[in-house]
Amino acid sequence: PVSLSSPTIRVRPLTCTETRRGDRQVVHSLGNGTVHVNTARHNATFGFSAVFDAGASQEAVFEGSGMRQLVDLAIDGFSCTVFAFGQTGSGKTYTLMGPLTQSETRPAAPGLLGLMQRSFACLLEQSWSRSSDLALSASYLEIYNEQVRDLLSPGPPCALPLRWSKTRGFYVENQLSVDFESLEAIANLLLQALSVSLAGSQRRRTSAHALNRHSSRSHALLTIHIRSRAVSTYPAWGGPSACPSKQGTLCFVDLAGSERVKETGSSGELCVEANNINRSLLALGHCISLLAKPRGKRTHIPYRDSKLTRLLARSLGGSGITLMVACISPSSRCLSETLSTLHYASRARRVTTRP
Asked: Is 93 flagged in the annotation as binding?
């Protein structure tokens, strides 16, 4: 058994708005994987596998979080997942994808690339060093208002049914999977998802509110399917031969941020979206709390309570290996949500899976 996530914490810098408003920094990294929250009413220290403060680079997060090892495991045939969790505006999408302003015509500086692009580059490096023939395909889904929608299918995104079978578990029926001949093509897909001029960002729901100008209104799941076939150096009959193939997956989950409607000022459709986001995150937290209990004391795990927990069932408590990156704000105004995220990640540390 291995830990579900060995959660890592990332503390973003105070924003210009928070600084002008006079918000105090109440979260501090103490080193050695510990983070301290210090206010007049709260004085708590939390321990994790790694804590990255506001000065940590994107490369430091990639190398220190264990993401490179996760890529290796996916090539070896394991089902691997990384998901970013935290309050709206806490830096989840930046951690996974890098700056939202990047596009095919205006790429991000190499130092600002997120976990996704760095993982794609790592896949390419491993395919060369291992003399492996990698066959790659990708699927890209979002969960918006409890509807699963395919972001790669042509035309307006439409809801797809979520099914269950004994052999496959929960799966999305009629989901489109696109084959790629190169990792650069997958990177271009990601840029399309970020570019305001291309289909990706227009198809995935985002809106502006008081806490975040680019708030994701849906949970997005980008899955890279990896089929690895190593060529044998000692063919039995003197000709080219291949070893048995391995099939793994690497899934990136950009969760919509939890939010308090009172703080964001959301109303109308934004309020409906916020309620659905919070409801699905509550279901995710409930599943993690139950999975954190010793196996002999566990009750039924309610994966069916939301579309999100159904799609993450294998990653959370099944045969997968999952990395959780919890993103938090250091602002005194966000204290309640920050503490909630830290307690959430602390529970996730106790979950184990059998990959």
From this structure: yes
- φ/ψ region of 145 (left if φ > 0, alpha if ψ in -120 to 50, else beta) reads left
Please tell me whether 86 is known to bind a ligand. Answer: yes
Task: Summarize pLDDT for 250-274 with one digit per residue, the tens.
Answer: 999 989 887 655 554 544 576 788 8
Flag whether 285 is marked binding.
no
299 labelled ligand-binding: no
| 92 is known to lie in a ligand binding site | yes
pLDDT digits (tens, 9 = 90+) for 18-50: 999 999 999 999 988 999 999 888 899 999 989
CA atoms within 13 A on the CB side of 171: 12
CB crowding 224-262: b at 16 or more within 10 Å, else e: bbbbbeeeeeeeeeeeeeeeeebebbbbbbbbbbbbeee
Whole-model pTM?
A: 0.84
Which residue's entry shows tokens 């066959």?
135
Q: CA 85, CA 80: separation in Å to the nearest integer?
A: 16
Half-sphere exposure of 17 toward its Cβ, with a 13 Å CA cutoff?
Answer: 7
Q: Which position has the token pair 């395909």?
A: 137
Domains in the chain, CATH or no CATH each: 8-99+112-202+209-229+245-292+301-349 (3.40.850.10)
Q: Is 91 annotated as ligand-binding?
A: yes
Any binding-site annotation on 262?
Answer: no
Has 318 been labeled as part of a binding site?
no
